[in-house]
Structure formats: C-alpha cells, structure tokens
Amino acid sequence: MSFEKSTIEFWLSQLEEHYSRERYSPQAAQRGNVIGRAFLTYLSKRHIAVEVVTPTDITLYLRQALRLYRRRHRHDPKWTHDPKSSHWWRYSHTTSIYKLLCLVHGRWPPPPPPHTPVEIFHREVCEQ
Questions:
Q1: Residue 20: which residues within 8 A CB-CB, separation 6 or more?
Q2: Cα dihedral: 46, 52, 35, 45 (round 10)
Q3: Exposure of 72 by Cβ count < 10 A (0-12 exposed, 13-18 middle, 19+ buried)?
Q4: What does the angle CA 32 – CA 35 – CA 38 come to, to the nearest 5 degrees?
Q5: Which distant-in-sequence residues (6+ apart) come within 8 Å of 95 by Cβ?
Q6: Which pTM does this prediction carry?
Q7: How many other C-beta atoms lie within 10 A of the C-beta of residue 63?
Q8: String of DSSP letters for the chain
Q9: pLDDT tens by residue, 56-86
C-alpha cells in the first residue's frame, strides 16, 4: 500500500469513527465519507499533504467537484440556479471537509497568524 493510500485510509477511518461516535445518521456518515475520500484523493493527486491544506485548496477542490458533476451529468446541478441551493451544495461539501480537517488540525479554520507583538504575546500565553 502506498504512503498516500495509507494516509487516505487512516484519515477516512478517523472520520468514520467520528461520525459513529457522534451518532450521525448512516446517510450523513456515508455522504461525509464519500466527500472526504474525494477531497483526500484530490489532495493526493496534487501532492498536497492534508496537514498543510489551506482554504484556497478547499475552494479549488469545490470548483473541480462542480466541473466533474457537469462533465458526468452533462448539465448543471439543479441547485446552481437557485442562490439558496448553491449555498446548500457548498455547505454540504464543506462540512465534511471541515470535519476532516478538524480531526487533522484540532480545529478548522486555523487561526490567523499574529501580526503585532501584542498578538504574538497573547497567542503564546493562550497556547501555554
């Protein structure tokens, strides 16, 4: 088993355990696992470690997911024509990705880096 495949399987098992522990419905857990696998596969193909993912990587993944849908079904999803529905589609994908990244990083999104000496001091105090 390649390193990337074992990493994907490890994080997917962590995600699956999370859904089970938190008593997600079987349908929600299955959807979350499918989206998690697709996202991790996307990262692997681009040689991006899940530990260094940025919000930009998520945006690029969502764009690709939408392109793949259009290619596979030869039309836009019905929800893209309704602004509220497009927000729901994005939400339905990002929640699974955010859950996965919370498992990896402990929290997502990561806090912005401190810029001033006072912010640096506060961050150091909070981390201790």
A1: 29
A2: 10
A3: exposed
A4: 150
A5: 32
A6: 0.79
A7: 10
A8: --HHHHHHHHHHHHHHHHHHHTT--HHHHHHHHHHHHHHHHHHHHTT--GGG--HHHHHHHHHHHHHHHHHHHSS--GGGGSHHHHHHHHHHHHHHHHHHHHHHHSSSSPPPPP-SHHHHHHHHHHH-
A9: 999 999 999 988 878 987 876 665 556 666 6
Which residue type occupies 99?
K
* 93, amino acid identity: H
Tokens linked to 128: 């201790």
Tokens of 17: 């355990």
**Sequence letter at residue 42:** Y
